[in-house]
Amino acid sequence: MGIIWNFIRKNKIALIFLLILLVGIFLRTYRFERFITFVADQRRDLRVVENVVENHASWPLLGPDMTDGQGFHLGPIYYYFQIISAYIFGVGPTQQAYPDVFFSILSIPLLYYFLRSYFSQKAALLSMGLYAISYLDIEYSRFAWNVNLIPFFVLLFLVSFWRLLSEDGSSGWKWTALAGLSLGVGVQLHAIILLLLPLVIIISAILLFLIEKKNIWKKLLAVLAIALVLNAGQIISEERTGFANSKDFVRGFVSKGDLPESSWQKRLALDVACNAQANTHIISSLGNKKMCDFLYEDNLPDSSYATPINLDQTPLVLVGETISLLFSILGISFLVFYLRGETDKKRKYFLGLILLYGALYFLIMFPIAPGSRMRYFLPIIFMPFIFLSFIFDYLTKRYPKNYIWIISAIVIFLMAANGISLAAYFRLERHW
Predict the structure, then answer these.
(1) Of 16, 17, 23, which Cα lies nearest the Cα of 133?
(2) In 3D, which of 26, 106, 104, 139 has the Cα closest to residue 422?
(3) Closest among 277, 276, 164, 178 to 226, alpha carbons compared
(4) Residue 307 has what pLDDT?
């Protein structure tokens, strides 16, 4: 027993890390085939995979339709993942979803690495543990859909792009390659990412050049070259069709912004409310599990900017909304405060990149946040865990004698909230 105890004591962190990872794997794979979601989008994608694998058709040049039949298609990389899975494991709804659960599992240790870049080991482990049991991520890891890969590839992009910005020499080129890989895949997963990641790169490069005279254009050209290679299918399709897909994307983006007339103050309030709701739901599963409904009349089938803002709600709902807003405000305040006071350049780049990414996401969501499905917030699935890590580290330093009780109460509450939702989820007979 003494040998075992000494081993546990010396390898405590590694064992906790492994335990969290095993819990995350279990929750993402438990009775995987029975609880898999298989509806219209999955049937459409499976027909594409079957056509390639069983009928020996050419691999597609374009991916899933993003505009409900209006024309714009994503890149084909998601189909390629599914086709590779089908060649290895066979064609079927379950095998079709293997890439989704695989990258979801990988996102758990990647989040820890990401958080550990700035936060303490305790804070990173606690946030990793809560992410491993996050209802939202588990729900979207258990079936085949292009958006399900967003958490992993966005995290990989942010980690690698941050390292690219902050490191010189040969190690910087390693991260350049990973940034190109994650960018090339990420922009093929959702239209929001197609806009968001290139904007992050362009604005980061401009700010670095203007503020620090730092020139990273060679690395950015390498990132772009790798991303273009991974998007070769789209490029070939565009050349053959006279850029038809790009034109459809512009038309779709314009139509998204064609909203009922309302004041910018109202649009801002609803964008803030929806982001706050998403942040709370990601860490706790509380709130509407399907769509953003903060500040709306109850039971509306389709929320929009035309909907009156509703503050006449039950006390419990108002308390929940208030806590959600305060959590997001507190997290953003921590981010800005520490960014302003940070003197280490590498750590400053980390915080600055997160702030830039979050701000650009907020702006992109301005026309579409109200009434958006929860999947639209997968690009910021890591953000509330950053906020939590700030809170954990602050409490540890502010209350060195009593922090364990406060943090334990927070963690137990979030674990219980996610656990209740997961239990209800697994009690369902089928999800299709």
Answers:
(1) 23
(2) 139
(3) 178
(4) 52
